[in-house]
Task: structure prediction
Amino acid sequence: QVQLVESGGGLVQAGGSLRLSCRASGRSFSSYVMGWFRQAPGKEREFVAAISGSGGISNYADSVKGRFTISRDNAKNTVYLQMNSLKPEDTAVYYCAADKSLVTLRSNYWGQGTQVTVSS
Result:
């Protein structure tokens, strides 16, 4: 069983930066692939970024490549999402997810979400 708690959301102007954190409870954090998803009002939840258990492999949605960076600290059971050059279209509730293999919308473990609002 894994419990996930996100933090770090807030209100920022376009062009600004935020760093989201997701802390996991439970054992064997390094055995989980971790991911970030987001859901904007009236839209479906979408993939943002994912990182392998060791942190050596990551991938990103095209819409955030070059602006967002996912990382993890297995000693702290925490995964991060550094978001730079934020745009109003990045406004959404951001969720972290965990899975033993690929993180997808069907993954079993989700946080409660943290709101990110980017003003123009």
Remarks:
- The two ends are 40 Å apart (CA to CA).
- The chain has a mean pLDDT of 97.
- The CA atoms of residues 24 and 77 lie 5 Å apart.
- DSSP finds no helices and eleven strands in the chain.
